[in-house]
From TrEMBL:
Keywords: DNA-binding, Transcription, Transcription regulation. The keyword Transcription regulation applies. This is LysR family transcriptional regulator. It holds the Pfam family HTH_1. Residues 5-62 form the HTH lysR-type domain. It comes from Aquimarina mytili. GO terms for cellular component: protein-DNA complex. PROSITE patterns: HTH_LYSR.
Length: 294
């Protein structure tokens, strides 16, 4: 074949790989379906592999196609980011750091980090997005984030993790609940109440710690509702639908009818960690890591 592979071939492949439907991918790309099929065929012939399994009803990726999709997502993300960094540097900035975080990190570590950076590295810009542990790990692997603030026991190979904040746990109660700071002695005092907890999807490690806090006191909590958002959990508690257990630092910044009582006499702590990719090439990352002492 005389044609050469171009970026468009890979862009077309990614569109089909994401949609797993040639017509929908063609509409997304604003080209004809026969034209798209021809481009994919050229790509397959040029590299000598089948990327899709096709029949009249379904389109699926072959193992080779799955590998190529993952690698191209990383490459295209890195190209987009590199172009953006180039523009920032041209304007006199030192580049951008993309941060993923759990909500509690915004109450503690991140504001302090941004203040320090603004003082020491004022030319670095930030892009912040709240997201779950799983999505942060995935985004860092795909080069969509530079660092993440998570609650995890371990991370995949190729990623680094360091603890940056240790927190206690607090019980969240409706404002008019009979328990007070003076009368609260043990989490067992609410063992008969419903619990509103962060979903295990938010952090399986965190969820397991909450369960162990209760089980250590001789009961298994009756979980009535789950959520990945603190605001939702507090609203449910305010409405009398249960009590909750959260990191103590997560009590600030909410104006709802709830109160927080730090849980006494428990061994469990919740650890907030920063994660990043070992081979991340963002030149601003080392400067930000130095502010976190990692």
């Amino acid at each position: 074949m005389s044609y050469q592979l171009e970026l468009r071939h890979f862009a077309y492949f990614l569109a089909v790989a994401e949609e797993l439907h040639f017509r929908k991918a063609a509409e997304k790309l604003f080209i004809s379906q026969p034209g798209l099929s021809r481009q994919i065929k050229q790509l397959e012939e040029r590299i000598g592999v089948s990327l899709f399994d096709r029949n009249k009803r379904n389109v699926s990726l072959t193992p080779a196609g799955l590998y190529l999709k993952k690698e191209l997502e990383y490459i295209f993300n890195h190209i987009d980011f590199t172009v953006k960094q180039t523009r920032l540097i041209d304007k006199g900035n030192k580049g951008e750091i993309r941060i993923g975080f759990l909500g509690s990190a915004m109450q503690t570590v991140i504001p302090e980090l941004l203040v320090k950076s603004n003082t020491k590295f004022p030319a670095i810009r930030f892009n912040l997005e709240e997201m779950s542990n799983h999505l942060q790990v995935e985004a860092i692997e795909k080069d969509q984030l530079d660092i993440g603030f998570v609650r995890l026991a371990r991370v995949p190979k190729g990623l680094k993790m360091r603890t940056v904040f240790e927190d206690t746990f607090s019980l969240v109660l409706p404002e008019n609940h009979k328990l007070t700071k003076e009368t609260f002695r043990s989490i067992k005092q609410v063992s008969e109440e419903n619990f509103v907890l962060f979903s295990s999807d938010y952090s399986s490690l965190y969820y397991d710690k909450i369960m162990s806090i209760c089980e250590d006191k001789g009961f298994t909590p009756k979980v009535s509702h789950k959520s990945v958002h603190a605001q939702t959990i507090y609203k449910l508690v305010e409405s009398g639908l249960g009590v909750a257990i959260v990191p103590t630092s997560l009590q600030y910044g909410f104006d709802l009818g709830v109160k927080f009582l730090e849980i006494p006499r428990i061994s469990q702590k919740t650890l907030l960690s920063v994660i990043w990719k070992e081979n991340n090439r963002n030149p601003a990352l080392e400067q930000i890591k130095s502010l976190l002492n990692v």
